Amino acid sequence: MNYYGLDWLIIILTFIITLGAQAYINSTYRRMKNVKSKCGMVGADVARKILDSNGLENVKVVETGGVLSDHYDPRAKVVRLSPDVYAKSSIASISVAAHECGHAIQDKNNYAFLRIRNSIIPLVNFASSAGYVAIVVGLFTSALGLLWLGILLEIVILAFQVITLPVEFNASSRALKQLEELKILDVNEKSKGRKMLKAAALTYVAAVATAVLEIFRLIMIANARNDD
Known about the structure:
The protein is mostly helical and 228 residues long. It has helices spanning 3-32, 43-53, 83-87, 91-108, 112-119, 121-141, 144-181, 187-227; strands at 60-63, 71-73, 78-81.
C-alpha cells in the first residue's frame, strides 16, 4: 500500500472508531435511561447518599446543563450532574451519578493517577492549542521543525488520555461497589449498570486509539516531507 492509500486508511479508521464509540454510548444510554430503578432514587439522591456514606458531606451535588455532561470538579468539590441524571430514577442516571462520586472518592483518597492527571492539565491545555497551530503552520509552510513540535505536543495529549483510562475504570469500579454495598441496585440492575459504565469507558479507549492513529499519520507526513 502506498503512502496516500495508508493515509486515507488511517483517516477512515479514525472516523469509524470515533463514530462507533459515540454511537454505542448513545445507544446504551438511551436504553438504560428508560429502565427504571427499583429503589426509586434519582441520580442526585444516589450521589448524596454515596458521598455522605464516604465522609464527603462537604462535596455538593448540583445540576448542570447538557447531555452526558456529568463530571466531578475537584477544585470546587462539586459533583455536577446533567438534568436527566440529576432528576431521574433510571439505571443510567444512577450509574452515571455513582461514577462521578467515584471520582470524588478518588480525590479524597489521593488516588495517584487522578493526581497525576490533574497536575498536567495546564500543560495539556497548552498542548491542545499550541500543537494544533504548530501542525497547521508546519504543514502549510513545510517547516518540519514546527511539524515535529506539534507531534510532540500531540504525544503529551496522548499521555494525558492514557493516564485518564485507569482513572475512569477505577471510578466505575468504585461506583459499582458503592451501589452494591449501599443496596441501591440489586444484582440484575447492577449488571445493567456495569454495561452502562463499560459503554462510557469505551469512549476513552476510542480516544486513545484515534490519538495513536493520528500521531502515526502525522509522523508519516513528516517523514514524507523530509524525504522530499
